[in-house]
């Protein structure tokens, strides 16, 4: 959807004419149908054309305090508009994810939304871990925003290792209350979005003590601030953690407790209970509490795809209009997109964005299936979902962050400017590599599942993501130029890497190491094994998803080129492991390199068309380099003139400091 109807850069017009498929067909495919595209565009218009949701001063020129205050102003308006959609029957959690954290949310609140966790974690946690009575008590209040919540789990001293959390909730049977305490500095809650000054309630994760025994971590609903004055309640120490690389409007906070009493029914008791006399009744499975964390990781894979799409759109459009040097001395300056090195930076990342979209679609579908099964008490598929969500979150966020930085570098000096929106986009995505599970730890969690399944690989018929582990490792795989061959070779590499890691753990144990120490000493190999498994899975999912599509011949050709490019790129990225663990040789590796270069060439005419199919409004991209009209230099100059330093021709510092310095006769 090209929003700017004025003059369009002729280089971009020329690029769009080269496209040999219907862009709108691909847009409809990505959205899930023409009706979904129409609905999305209507939502975007509803939010993004509201003048109240536009900032009068660019965010980068505001102070930290002003950024937060502007974000709260906009967030409240967004929530009101979200409720309006809900009342009109046009809302749902899928839409809210897009509005609060996806395309629309990032357009309105480019540096983070201080109220996002209310919908993304506070409400889902109550729905997933609260009893029917607790849901009746809290969900309506939260949905109507008569309270604003956040999710307080991570502490100053503990993040991904949640079993090590130090906040305590000690049950007092005399008053039927829990007493919350932060016994150490490191036990202070640290990082929850909106906690600093926005939320007045939180789901607090704490170590439960009852009848003198610790029962492990459990969630509690805790009021933090007075509903009228917003002052912190007695015993609660709360504030904001300060500036960060990105997300500086998110209002991440710290929280400490000193003898804060809450009622017994403030503990979310769908899975575990504390009876009035203090008796602890445990859930049939501790795994039931995974739901909220898995949900967030599912969302993050989709967000990684979205942010990478934004970056490749900006960089590809810029590359089509930016001219630099000449390929032939007698020719005019060359659009930098014609340089193969530039294509190598951009086109694999376009393919990666598509691959992540289809992986996210698969994960969302499986998550909903498993979540439905959990309601009936069936948990057979939960470990596989947990392991897959871990590895997909780790791979997608790491590759999206690297891809966005590659796109920024591909835009040269202009990509360094805030007006490109690439630095801000990188800041948002690189944060995803550590929150909701630091990526290395998540890869190790996936590896634990892989090792367990390897040791029991005769019983993998119920684990579709691991069926390849049953294939004999001695089977020869002759080279052929196909995605199926790459998938097979990646899977064999993954299986042999898992086997080797498992063997090394056993060897270390045989030499006298404890299983825990053997695991730690093998952890480099374990991380690599999980990473290869994840990449093989994404290639396979992308390939199988495209094979099922019913699209025009022209679009089918382009989509298969994208699948091939992603597959070849992943194979080359893991060439060292593949050469070590498979039958591939040096000449076949050379054939892969030639295949890559051929794919860059055939994709060249469709590059701008592919990123146009993402259908980003200019407000969503928020980039002088990536606007749909391609008028890069005009937009950069306009952005420069918005600097407050350009309001007056002579800054006051000249009279105060520079002029006396110049006259000082040093």
Structure description:
The model has no long low-confidence stretch (mean pLDDT 91). This protein starts with 9 loop residues before the first helix and ends with a helix. It has helices spanning 10-18, 23-31, 34-48, 64-87, 93-101, 103-108, 116-129, 132-143, 291-321, 340-375, 382-410, 422-432, 439-455, 483-510, 515-521, 523-548, 553-573, 575-581, 586-603, 607-612, 618-621, 632-641, 652-662; strands spanning 149-152, 168-172, 177-181, 189-190, 201-210, 213-223, 236-240, 253-257, 260-263, 273-274, 280-281. Strand 2 (168-172) and strand 3 (177-181) form a beta hairpin. It is built from 23 helices and 11 strands. The strands form 3 sheets. Strands 1, 2, 3, 5, 6 and 9 form a 6-stranded mixed beta sheet that branches. The chain has a 3-stranded antiparallel beta sheet with strand order 4-8-7, with no helix packed on it. The protein has 666 residues and is an alpha+beta fold. It has a domain at 148-283: Butyryl-CoA Dehydrogenase, subunit A, domain 2 (Beta Barrel), CATH 2.40.110. The longest helix has 36 residues, at 340-375.
